[in-house]
Specification:
The protein is built from 7 helices and 6 strands. With 206 residues, it is an alpha/beta fold. The protein has a 6-stranded mixed sheet with strand order 2-1-3-6-4-5. Strand 4, helix 5 and strand 5 form a beta-alpha-beta unit. The protein starts with a strand and ends with a helix. GO terms for molecular function: rRNA binding; structural constituent of ribosome.
Length: 206
């Protein structure tokens, strides 16, 4: 599939052939959902914690005798039915990670790229370089390209001025090719790839 290549001034500077094996796959919402869930589960700290009865500070004395009081039998004031007592089946510190095979993760990334291409929300840039680290000039260039919510993926080495200038613009993310992931692609409206990023992604995913 052929598409035009633009520069940051919104001028057409050539064409590029996108590999259908990477950018031409059918949409699979189930696959994308599995991948996003996998990514977000890995991010979770899992530091939530409640105290069990063995962790509660307090007396170990039996509150009252077993029989003869007319009250329900009790063995500990640290039991969950008492104020300040334990929590039953509460959360414990754990990892929320789960397995997802490499083939599925690779297919999900190709599917996300294909979805953006099919929706017409994929822009190919000649390169992502800025002459200055000032944000104002880059905001004007993004305005000419019609970019509001955008993920920009460049090659392995990012231009320092471009990264610094884009860092102050809301809803704009800049990643190297090796950091390309399904969640960040889907959370932004438009996907922008440089020529280098296209070549490296196709080499990695084909």
């Amino acid at each position: 599939m052929k598409t035009t290549v633009k520069n940051l001034k919104n001028e057409q500077v050539g064409e590029i052939e996108l590999d259908d094996a990477v950018f031409g796959l059918p949409a699979r919402a189930d696959l994308l959902a599995r991948m996003v869930n996998w990514q977000l589960a890995k991010r979770r700290q899992g530091s939530h914690k409640t105290k069990g009865i063995s962790e509660i500070s307090g007396t170990t004395k039996k509150p009252w005798k077993q029989k003869g009081t007319g009250r329900a039998r009790q063995g500990s004031l640290r039991s969950p039915q008492f104020r300040g007592g334990a929590v039953i089946f509460g959360p414990v510190v754990r990892s929320h990670e789960h397995d997802l095979t490499k083939k599925v993760r690779k297919l999900a990334l190709k599917t996300a790229l294909s979805v953006k291409a099919a929706e017409g929300k994929l822009i190919i840039l000649d390169d992502a370089r800025a002459e200055t680290h000032k944000t104002k000039a880059l905001v004007e260039q993004f305005g000419a390209l019609g970019l509001n919510s955008v993920l920009i993926i460049d090659g392995a080495n990012l231009d320092e001025n471009f990264v610094r200038a884009a860092g102050n613009i809301p809803h704009v993310d800049v990643l190297p090719e090796q950091g390309a992931n399904v969640y960040d692609i889907l959370r932004r409206d438009t996907l922008v790839l440089t020529r280098n990023a296209v070549e490296q992604l196709e080499a990695r995913l084909k």
